[in-house]
Amino acid sequence: MLLQRVKPLERLLAETKDSSHSLKKTLGPVSLIAMGIGAIIGTGIFVLTGVAAAKYTGPSLTVSFIIAGFVSAFAALCYSEVASRVPIAGSAYTFAYASLGEFIAWIIGWDLVLEYALGAATVSVGWSGYFYTVVRNITGLQIPQSLMHNPWDTGPMGEPMHGIMNLPAFGIICLIGVLLYRGTRESAVVNNVIVAIKVCVVLFFIAIGVGHVNTANWSPYFPYTLGGTFFGAFFVFFAYIGFDAVSTAAEESVNPKKDMPIGIIGSLAVCTVLYLIVSAILTGIVPYNHLNVPQPVAYAIDQIGMPWAGAIIALGAIAGLTTVLLVMMFGQTRVFFAMSRDGLLPAFFSKVHPKFRTPTITTIIFTLLIAIAGSLTPISILGELTNTGTLFAFVLVSIALPILRKRYPSTSGYQVPGGPMLIPVISVILSGLLFLAPIWSPLLAKALGLVIDVKYILGLPLPIFAFIVWMLVGLIVYFTYSRSHSTVGKDEAATRIASG
Asked: How many CA atoms lie within 13 A of 189 on its CB side?
């Protein structure tokens, strides 16, 4: 019964033509690739590299990025096909609704809300760290540490920071919310410009840093054993969710059957290469156990006595992280918009502004919630929670692909190589293993004689525990509200009554 409510693809496409609930088609392949790069390059390079190296991987951070990128590649192929076949706002949520049914669609939609909202909150903390570096290096002013950290933050060597709230993180989320309120065309233009700037800054860091690498810093290469390296792959997986966010813009793509695969796969390929180079240089400049900071790239340049270069890199990081915030918050509001349009959430979430044609109420509400989370939660916890949502979404999208192709054989678009089963099955296995890495990688590390820094609640790793709690809340919402208000459910009931 739970798996029977499938929303026909024809109906999904028809709803996009309703002027009161439709989004403008303004995004071409260049904008989509830039959107993907905007989400991918930023967090992984500028923020999570330091925490991952210091706490989980050491110099083997490059191996963690290879593992995470390998898993992402298979998921990206699956996303490319489903996004080109179902070019509608909502990303994996919409794909699941057309193939696996309403219940699974609700689960994945609720999961994506966690992924994008906490993902944006994670990035805002890193943005705040680089903002502090720019202010200090250029103006000499010192922002009070109590306004740069939440009450649970620690410093590079684990010392308490005695914070109250991360005020810059709160502020940047609010500014991005205002931009998204104004519309996607304006957002895309800003994103394209900033992406070009931050790619140049990444190349600048490579050029400056490569001559200051001390190969002695790469030894030991696996200080936390392979268990730590695998957990590091789980941790830095956050850095690859940009191509996933591209798929949420399918309804606003001018030619989704052609442009979505280009945007998704192209952005992933470019960014993976840069990740490997930057992570190797970073751990070669600074000993890995000194990198537990929210602005590791600028911090590394500061350590070699080049504060002017650190300021330039920090400015580029601010630009880069701003585009990540833009894409994450864009994706989150579009998923909630799609769920509301289906009746699974109150109707006011799918109201669009008469002039800007954007989901205004959803944008305002989640801007405030994300700003609060970013200003009061440690970055490591936010990143881990985001990754569980991302990997779970990858598993469900990979399962949905062969079902979608079988259910709608007449639809056209990009097709994954190797038939409808090979790539999706591999993607499910790899994403599932990485999803469970918080459970098995600490056990592997312990068997090899080391303990990595993983927090537990009731015997479960924190990210797994929090994910379960979030899903339970989602089930309560579904069975108390969404199932009875579903437009598909109401139509099915009306059809049964009419047929006697």
From this structure: 6
Task: Give, in order, the Cα–Cα distances in Å from 374 to each of 165, 280, 328, 389.
Answer: 9, 28, 13, 17
Q: What is the pLDDT of residues 15-28, one digit of tens each?
A: 655 555 555 666 77
Please answer whether residues 26 and 236 qualify as being in contact, where contact means their C-beta atoms are separated by less than 8 angstroms: no
Residue 361 contacts residue 349 (beta carbons within 8 Å): yes
Token couple for 267: 């952005």
Contact 250, 12 (CB under 8 A): no
Q: How large is the average pLDDT for residues 139-150?
A: 82
Residue 156, classified by CB atoms within 10 Å of its CB into exposed (0-12), middle (13-18) or buried (19+), is middle
3-state class of 160 per DSSP? strand
- CATH number assigned to the domain with residue range 9-494, chosen from the 4 options 3.40.50.12780, 3.40.50.720, 3.40.50.300, 1.20.1740.10: 1.20.1740.10
Q: What confidence tens digit (pLDDT) does each residue in 415-430 have?
A: 888 888 999 999 999 9
With contact defined as beta carbons under 8 Å apart, do 282 and 59 qualify? no
Q: How do residues 51-104 score in pLDDT, each as one tens digit?
A: 899 989 999 999 999 999 889 888 888 887 877 777 665 567 777 777 778 888
- List beta partners, residue 154: 160
In whole angstroms, give the CA distance from residue 76 to residue 36. Answer: 11
Half-sphere exposure (CA, 13 Å, Cβ side) for 430? 21
Residue with the bigger pLDDT between 146 and 154: it is: 146
Q: Tens digits of per-residue pLDDT, 331-368?
A: 777 788 878 888 898 887 777 777 767 788 888 888 99
The H or E element that residue 460 is part of is strand 460-461
Spell out the alpha helix ranges (H) of 218-306: 225-236, 242-247, 256-285, 296-303
Q: Where are the alpha helices (DSSP H) in 347-417?
A: 360-376, 379-407
The C-alpha torsion from 365 through 368 and 370 to 375, rounded to 10°, is -170
Structure tokens at 477: 């919402």
- Please write the tens of the pLDDT for every residue from 214-246: 999 999 999 998 889 999 999 888 778 767 667
What whole-number distance in Å separates Cα of residue 126 and Cα of residue 120? Answer: 10
Contact 246, 35 (CB under 8 A): yes
Residue 196's CB: how many other CB atoms inside 10 A? 12
Q: b/e string for 423-458 if b means 16 or more Cβ within 10 A?
A: bbebbbebbebbbebbeebbebbeeeeeebebeeee
Q: Which residues pair with 457 in a beta bridge?
A: 460
CA distance 321 to 194: 10
The torsion of the CA quartet 201, 202, 205, 210, rounded to 10 degrees, works out to: -150
482/11: higher pLDDT: 482
Evaluate if residue 484 carries a pLDDT over 70: yes
Separation in Å, CA 365 to CA 77, 362, 470: 33, 5, 18
Whole-number percent of the chain with pLDDT over 70: 87
